[in-house]
Amino acid sequence: MAKKDLKWDSIGFNYHQTDKRYVSNYKDGAWDEGRLVDDPNVTINESAGILQYCQQVFEGMKAYTWENGEVVCFRPDLNAERIYNSAQRIEMPPVPKEKFLDAIDQVVKGNLDWVPPYGSGASLYIRPYEFATGVVIGVKPADTYQFRVFTTPVGPYYKGGVTPIVLQVSDYDRAAPHGTGAVKAGLNYAMSLHASVLCHQAGYNENLYLDPGTRTFVEETGGSNVIFVKDKTVIVPKSDSILPSITRRSIVYIAEHYLKLKVEERPVKFEEVKGFDEAGCCGTAAVISPVGKIVDHDEEINFPSGMDHAGPVITELYNTITGIQNGRIEAPEGWIRHIA
Ligand code: PLP
Ligand code: COI
Fold it and tell me: Are 145 and 132 in contact (CB under 8 A)?
């Protein structure tokens, strides 16, 4: 066994085909045993539910190499729970949580050479997903499904790592009131692509979405939740139409229990944001990416923390959560799954 010879510090957030992926099929009301395979390609019928009506849900998680060589995963039980809930919302048979965790173990163990080394700043991104393989033509749930898990080594989601990014307030909505914003389904991302292309063309890193009902409250970005800091208090937007980010829930715990900071989880009016000291995007891919500026048409919010580096509280949160993920800081009980 030897680690792959990649330039770990410059791989970016890209797909690299690794050795093994996990596949399990659902038919006649039951999941099969599941196994690792070599072939990264999927062959399905032209009228499969995923191809016609986008019946798909997914997860994003990471495995890390610790200094002692152990390979671990961060809070995979919460991913198991979230994809279970997502599947139910999209009328798909949920993958039992123990089966999900076993699949993660198998696929990480099958790709150990691809888990970036300790200290490289990179990690192994794990992408579990379930989709409808069954044929449909009328709009209805399919009757067969596939659950797969692949991995790819990744570096920071945003070029520049922890250099502050700029968000643009989008004129589009990411989620409908009472829609699917709170579940991790591919359809939410398909409809964000046009807004995302326009955002990048305009020179910004990411869209910030406002609540679809009134467009007065902060929701989240296309691929992360957002957090703010004011007077050492961490302010976390609460909404029924945003994804319950595992990173954000962990940050709230860390802020309260490790850093002894006050946390307010509540609806946050966009109007308030100009009074905040610091901002960040948080998620598995984004980790905590500091936000230096938010642009809303011709109005700019420049956070006092600036565009050169993250502010003090975001920095402390970042150091603590990455310290826990990489084994330098003791984790709360149950947060780390030791895989190999
Ligand atoms: N919000 C959206 C829309 C996302 O795609 C993600 C990424 O998973 C998150 C939030 C962050 O969630 P988590 O911290 O569980 O990765
Ligand atoms: C993740 O953070 O895992 C996500 O799914 C977000 C995606 C934009 C890569």
Answer: yes
For the CA of 284, the closest atom of ligand 2 is 2
**Structural contact between residues 239 and 211, judged by C-beta atoms closer than 8 angstroms:** yes
Q: How far is Cα 252 from Cα 280, in angstroms, rounded to an integer?
A: 13
Q: Where are the beta strands (DSSP E) in 6-115?
A: 21-27, 30-31, 35-37, 56-58, 61-65, 71-74
Under the banding of pLDDT at 50, 70 and 90, the label for residue 149 is very high
User: What's the whole-model pTM score?
Assistant: 0.97
Closest-CA residue to 209 (of 170, 238, 248)? 170
The region that residue 156 occupies, defined by phi over 0 for left and psi between -120 and 50 for alpha, beta otherwise, is beta
Q: What is the CA radius of gyration of the chain?
A: 20
Residue 38, burial from CB neighbour count under 10 angstroms (0-12, 13-18, 19+)? exposed
Is 249 exposed, middle or buried, given 0-12, 13-18 or 19+ CB atoms closer than 10 A?
A: middle
Cβ count near 160 (within 10 Å) = 10
Mean pLDDT of 205-211: 97
Angle at 281 between CA 275 and CA 286, to 5 degrees: 165
Pairing of strands 165-169, 206-210: parallel
Nearest CA to ligand 2 atom 7: 223
pLDDT value at position 7?
A: 93
Distance CA 242, CA 264 (A): 17
Q: How far apart are alpha carbons 228 and 264 in whole angstroms? A: 10
H helical segments located in 169-282 = 186-190, 193-201, 246-253
- Cβ < 6 A, ligand 1 pocket: 60, 220, 223-225, 243, 245-248, 283-284
- What is the structure's pLDDT at 161? 75
Which position has the token pair 């999941």?
31
CA–CA gap between residue 119 and residue 116 (Å, rounded): 9
